[in-house]
UniProtKB/TrEMBL annotation:
<dbReference type="GO" id="GO:0140662">
    <property type="term" value="F:ATP-dependent protein folding chaperone"/>
</dbReference>
<comment type="similarity">
    <text>Belongs to the heat shock protein 70 family.</text>
</comment>
<dbReference type="InterPro" id="IPR013126">
    <property type="entry name" value="Hsp_70_fam"/>
</dbReference>
<dbReference type="InterPro" id="IPR043129">
    <property type="entry name" value="ATPase_NBD"/>
</dbReference>
<protein>
    <recommendedName>
        <fullName>Heat shock 70 kDa protein 12A</fullName>
    </recommendedName>
</protein>
<dbReference type="GO" id="GO:0005524">
    <property type="term" value="F:ATP binding"/>
</dbReference>
<keyword id="KW-0547">Nucleotide-binding</keyword>
<keyword id="KW-0067">ATP-binding</keyword>
<dbReference type="Pfam" id="PF00012">
    <property type="entry name" value="HSP70"/>
</dbReference>
Length: 593
């Protein structure tokens, strides 16, 4: 509806005649990023493993970060992360998380009671692969018998980490105010805004107030960790004018950022976050296909999980260990063969299979790595061609523990001249760095936009630049509708605290319009031309989400002029709306789902 809008480059806003509720709309936090928190806790929900870390102000002064140690019947020694496994009962009520969920489910399988339980694993990748992430997105359990809202599965995961963290700090008798704890939740830098928002809403659903919640990008968090290491660890990497790449090789995704180190030690992104779904689980899938071929059964591993989860888990862990240890030095791999698997497959003894072991020849084992290795190298080469130089590549994430992958990258002819390093415990780099990021969220001063962002606006119609089919009438004047008014272009460098501005006006003279929420739609696109008028209805431009401005208690004045500030240089898009007419800040929600 265009009636009542002033136009001259103003936003096309939707002023509903009825009040609209937005249950999960995210409001702009008024808490200063420089706020002095008692404790910062970070939650890293990974494809395969998840965990938390934390530090209070005293520990942070010593650059000390604490981890939990998870235990379970399936592990011989405590681990800093637990399996990303969530278990629900037959009524879809949450039961347990991590090793507790794995142990309990294994018991139910042994007692043949597992039909009453629903296990969710490796669900994080759904948010990357789903093209249109919405609140009603569902995730199927392992068996495919049922599904739950993705927000519920993520929320219970975060709630489990939060509850465990709270119990831990109480046991340590740390002095803190529960309202003065910052919770940092990590997400891949290559995720869409809608996926980030779903994760944020899941955290809020888990009981974290928005004002105490911060989203951190995983490779950036890892960079913060590496930056905090003793100087001799990464030599000159973080000295002014150096340029480095963080290659976050996780279980599900490969996530890359490239930073320049500024004169004051701050960081500036020089290439938009990139990556893909080429993480360590891609190697796992190749191994699974190999096993299926040997046993001539596409369901043998699934049957093993159903018959004996502990045997399946042991095989999975042993393969993971070999995946990390194999190097460029040729040697065949020997894996313990679960008796149940041989029973399922009914395969005779061969050169590859004995009564109790599987032998994988070295050339075949290397093949498991070929696809992700080639994609990672191709990505590095593409980025190198764009940025011109790299002083160092830092490998982090669980997949970077693979000695073979490290050797292959280091010896590749196109990147062999670049120093490649991997810190100790690379699988914990994101988690530790996320705590540091919570105390210093402004350390990444500049980021590169992955998309072109803007609003749909009305302009005075000019037949020399506007399409005839976009001509319309507003208040008796000829206007052009659906013009894409760009705020920031793809590839543009934006500062952390430097907003882009848009203005709009709306009329509220009628009584039924005094308290209506005003909706403005933000659009995003790629490869947007800068030499002609572009319209939000063109192919490749999609609505990103709505900005909803709520009326004050006394209602809107007759004519309101808004100034909207949009911050693109932070880990998530932030919005502020200001009523210029009455000199007041407007209550704003943003909804990308």
């Amino acid at each position: 509806e265009l009636s009542g809008l002033l136009y001259a480059n103003f936003l096309q806003v939707n002023m509903d005649t009825e009040k609209t509720e937005v249950k999960y709309g995210i409001q702009v936090s008024e808490r200063s990023p420089r706020h002095s928190w008692d404790i910062v806790a970070a939650f890293d929900i990974g494809t395969s493993y998840s965990g938390y870390a934390y530090s209070d102000r005293k520990e942070m002064d010593l650059k000390s970060v604490s981890f939990n140690q998870w235990t379970g019947n399936m592990v011989s020694d405590p681990k800093a992360k637990a399996p990303t496994t969530v278990l629900f009962d037959k009524n879809m009520r949450f039961h347990s998380f991590g090793y507790e969920a794995e142990d309990f489910y294994a018991t139910q399988v042994c007692e043949k009671k597992n039909d009453d339980w629903y296990r969710f694993k490796n669900f994080k990748m759904v948010l990357y692969r789903e093209k249109n992430v919405q609140r009603d997105l569902k995730i199927s359990d392992d068996s495919g018998r049922s599904s739950l809202l993705a927000s519920e599965v993520f929320s219970q995961t975060i709630k489990s980490l939060k509850s465990h963290f709270e119990n831990t700090v109480r046991e340590r008798a740390l002095q803190f105010d529960s309202g003065n704890v910052l919770y940092v939740v990590t997400v891949p830098a290559i995720w869409k805004q809608s996926a980030k928002l779903l994760m944020k809403e899941a955290a809020m659903q888990a009981g974290i107030p928005e004002a105490q919640l911060l989203i951190a990008l995983e490779p950036e968090a890892a960079a913060m960790y590496c930056k905090s290491l003793p100087e001799q660890t990464l030599t000159d990497t973080f000295k002014p004018h150096k340029r480095y790449m963080v290659l976050d090789l996780g279980g599900g995704t490969v996530d890359v950022v490239v930073h320049d180190v500024l004169e004051d030690g701050g960081l500036a992104e020089v290439y938009k976050a990139s990556g893909g779904d080429w993480g360590g689980t891609m190697v796992d899938r190749e191994f699974e296909r190999y096993i299926q071929n040997i046993f001539n059964s596409e369901t043998c591993l699934k049957e093993l999980w159903n018959l004996s989860p502990r045997d399946a888990y042991d095989l999975e862990r042993e393969f993971e260990m070999q995946k990390r240890q194999i190097s460029n030095k040729a040697a065949d791999i020997r894996l313990k063969l679960p008796a149940r698997l041989q029973q399922v497959g009914k395969v005779p003894v061969t050169s590859s299979i004995t009564f109790d072991h599987i032998y994988v020849q070295y050339p075949k084992f290397k093949e498991f790595f070929e696809n992700p290795k080639n994609r990672i190298i191709s990505l590095i080469k593409d980025i190198l061609n764009e940025v011109g130089r790299l002083d160092q590549i830092i490998l982090v994430g669980g997949f970077s523990s693979s000695r073979y992958l490290y050797d292959q990258l280091k010896s590749h002819s196109d990147i062999s001249g670049i120093d490649i390093c991997c810190p100790k415990e690379p699988g914990l780099a994101v988690l530790q760095g996320a705590v540091l990021f919570g105390y210093n969220p402004e350390d990444v001063r500049y980021r590169i936009c992955r998309y072109t962002f803007g609003f749909g606006v009305l302009q005075d119609f000019d037949e020399s630049i506007h399409r005839a089919d976009k001509r319309d009438k507003v208040d008796g004047e000829d206007v052009c509708k659906d013009v894409f008014d760009v705020l920031v272009y793809e590839g543009e460098k934006v500062k952390f605290d430097d907003p882009k501005f848009a203005t709009s006006k709306s009329s509220h003279r009628q009584a039924d319009r005094k308290h209506i929420p005003i909706k403005k739609e933000l659009f995003a696109g790629k490869n947007i031309p800068q030499d002609r008028t572009v319209y939000v209805t063109e192919e490749g431009i999609k609505p990103l989400g709505k900005i909803i401005s709520h009326a004050p208690k006394e209602g809107w004045s007759n004519l309101v002029e808004f100034k909207t500030k949009v911050y693109f240089g932070q880990t998530e898009i932030k919005i502020e709306d200001f009523d210029i007419t009455n000199n007041v800040t407007v209550n704003v929600e943003i909804d990308f789902l």
